[in-house]
Structures are given as C-alpha cells and as structure tokens.
Amino acid sequence: MHNKATMSSGGATGAVQPANEPSTDAHPTVITAENLTKTYGDVAAVDGISFSVPAGESFGLLGPNGAGKSTTMKMIGGVTRRTSGALHIMGLDPDSHGPEVRAHLGVVPQQDNLDEELRVRDNLLVYGRYFGLPMSYLKPKADELLEFAQLTDKAKSKVDALSGGMKRRLTIARSLINEPRILLLDEPTTGLDPQARHILWDRLFRLKEQGVTLILTTHYMDEAEQLCDRLIVVDKGRIMAEGSPAQLIREHSTREVVELRFGSERNTTIASELQGIGERLEVLPDRVLIYAHDGESALEQVASRGLRPLTSLVRRSSLEDVFLRLTGRSLVD
Fold first, then answer.
1. Which 3 state secondary structure label does DSSP give 314?
2. How far apart are CA 86 and CA 37, in angstroms?
3. Strand, helix or coil at 277?
4. What is residue 248's predicted lDDT score, i.e. its pLDDT?
5. Which residues in the chain come in under a pLDDT of 50?
6. Where are the domains of the chain?
C-alpha cells in the first residue's frame, strides 16, 4: 500500500516534497504521541495520552464532546501547541516544523469553512494556491477531485447552493488538493442524513485503499466500527482503551445486548427483578440493558419472570457499550 494518495499519474510539480520518514518499513510510523498534554489554565483538555499510527491505517478517536479529541487533532495539525509531551508527524515536530508538517496533511475541520462566494471548482483552485501549486497542476487535479467527490455537475455552482452532504464532500476534496499522506477528519459526518453519511464513508474507504492514512474523531459508534482499523476510546482527556473495534467489543462487552424499556418511571425500580439474567445490567434513564452472550435466551428469562417491557430489542454489542462499561455513561450523555 502506498503512503501517498495518487489518484492520477499527475502530481504536484515539486511544490510539496516528502518529509523524512522514521523508517523504511512497508508501513512506517507516521504519527507518534508520547504523554501528550494540553492544558488551559487548570483544565487538562488532553491529559497524557500516547499512541502511534502506521502509514495507511484508519485510526480513530472515539469519545463524547469535550473528551479532548479535537484538541488532539489541532496539535497534530500544528494549529495548537502542546503543553508537554512529545509529538512527531512523519518524523517532524509540528511545533517547530509546522509548514513542513502541514504540507503533508489534509484537514477536514468539524465545521465546513468553504468560501461561500466562490464557485465549487474555484474553492479547490484557490486553496491549492496556498500551497504554491501551479495552475497547470491544479486545474486537472480539481477536475479529478470533483469527480472523486461526485460533484462534477456542480463545478460552476455557488457553494451556498450545495446540500450539507455535498459541502462535506467538497471540503474533503479540497483537503486532498496537495495529495496529502495523512488526512485529519474531525467529526466528518456530524449533521448529515444517513444517505449522505454512507456516500462519505465510501469516499473515505477509497482514500484508504489508495494508501492515505486517515485520522478521524467521532462520537458515532457505527462510524468508528465502519471506518477504523484501530481506535482509542477517550474520555476527559485520557485514553480508556485502545484496539480494533472488534477487539474492544470482545474484551469489554458480551456478544449481545437486550434493550428493555419499561417507561422512565419503572426502569430503575424494575432492575432488581432482572438480577441474575445475563452477565450484567446497566440502567439508563430511558432503558435497561442486559448484557448476555445469548440475547434471545435472556429475553425469554425476562418473560418467564412475568415482566412485560413496553419495547424489547436484541442487538449485538457496539462500541457504545464498551464506552458505557469503561466510563459509566453513554457517548451521548
């Protein structure tokens, strides 16, 4: 797998030079963080986290709003200086080699910051000029990226005429103008409808196939399971767990979960009558969760005790169950 996106044989004409990489292995480490911290006064937004990301991996930071995910992304991108710890991007410290690091990064911020006054294609051309890329490269590259983002027929449209999903795809296309080796995506699908999310996921899968390293933050468990080879679960600036989605679910949860709703007034009081069913119980404000290796069997035990929930559902365990087990609260709290 290549370390650099090459959607066509053309490339930047020497404007963006490869950084010195830490090794010549098939999958060199492109990001290394050691005891990384960022404090604002007495508040530790990022509290001593360590991780490494090999080239070509899709690496996720999963956690609720305020967990420190976006702050970590800003430090990787060289936008925010760290308070302490070590951070290297392709062998370079972003605090001291910001321009060199950013030359190899594509950044998709949490909020689209497209130029609403410019037409769609011109957003790509103008952004490319910030990297010093020549128009002889930018014009065909912009057309290629618009096709990749499924926006070719919108090339001459004003940005404010695009749907939310189209704007998100244009932001991603813009981030790829310099053929980055690493793409940072901060909550890439927040606010999108299900169809737009799946289209975006498909584009990201294609980038990964081309060898782009993806770093993404999300609080959507299904997104993390779909897109991430490996992830860290972050809460209050600290890493709670690390591994592949399947590994984390296997280590911290049961195979299945039974969701029962008895009504908000009864969920807590009826929990005592569910003791002994499954491996463990979690009582949330709106539902009771029974963690069991055989959900249908657990549901039958509920019925055999004469308990009649308003609704019941058997599903497989997810990363949200992992987060609940590790922190005692759900991702949407």
1. strand
2. 9
3. coil
4. 95
5. 1-24
6. 29-244, 254-316
